Amino acid sequence: MYSIFKILQELKVKSVKSADYYNIAALPSIRDHKIGISQSEYPMFFIKCNDSENVKSIDCNLEFISVQFNRHCQLLNNKKEVEEGIYTIISLKTNSIDLQEYFLDTIYLVIKKLPQKPNLKELKIEVDNLLNLFNRLSQPAIKTIQGLWAELLIIEQSNNPEYLIKAWHSSATDKFDFNDGKDKIEVKSTSNSRRVHTFSIEQLNPNEHSTLLVASVFTVMTGIGKSIFNLIHSIEKKLKNKEGLLHLNEIVVKTLGKDFEKSFDVFYDYQLGIDSIEYFKSADIPSINTNNIPREISNIRFDCDLTNLSGIKENKTNSILHNSLFQNKL
After folding, report:
1. In this predicted model, what pLDDT tens digit does every residue of 261-272 receive, in sequence order?
2. Domain boundaries, the chain
């Protein structure tokens, strides 16, 4: 999508500027909706929909994104022909290349989810989700870049990334990184030379009929390596269902918040990360017996050194979640 937008930028520079129309281009495999460029040379989308039910809609203007509903637009295509119509306009408001790429890819995925001729009610549901997503860019991060990178590496190295993505942070309050409603995976990362990780007492005590694996990864920052978005592009190539990519991107933004742009410039040693991955059964990890903890004490956290523990090399259970992990570990 970004390559299409770059062409629009070049065409706009060569054309006579006019406030009467927007330069637009067709979207791959989509007929009625268009990608465009604003007078400030920011990316934007024009989405055509049916408003036969006269749905009430209020324009929205956030720090990074704006939405205008049911606007009469004059659009200039690459044949220099003017197309007129009523569109909902979704615009980005930053010249950050990283944010522009993310915006273009995300909105395109959302458009592909829509029916061929969506009604305004259907569009508003997706728009509300987008506004909540981009609003996260103004919020504090809820996890470190290092921690998120390690989780993405586990997905990227798995033999069933789509299943892991579905189980990834299924709830904002989930205490495990991956939870498919039965089994759990918790990912721990360290930049030290030993596998010392911090656990909460609850993390090592899943419910009775669940099994928990702890993934341990060494994450060492480097000048040249792979960033979070390098991993996302690698995961994308393995996905058959692109809706999984939309869910993955949503989690990344919600997790990083204000650190989103910063994360494009943070790289970790990819090969070290792969070579260092070890999986441990939660029952094998030293912990504190919950029977010895007074009921009045809560929120217990402790560091545990897994360096001398033996990890598992294959999954011998029928857990779909855990079976997803071992493609490169056998």
Report:
1. 899 999 999 999
2. 2-138, 145-323
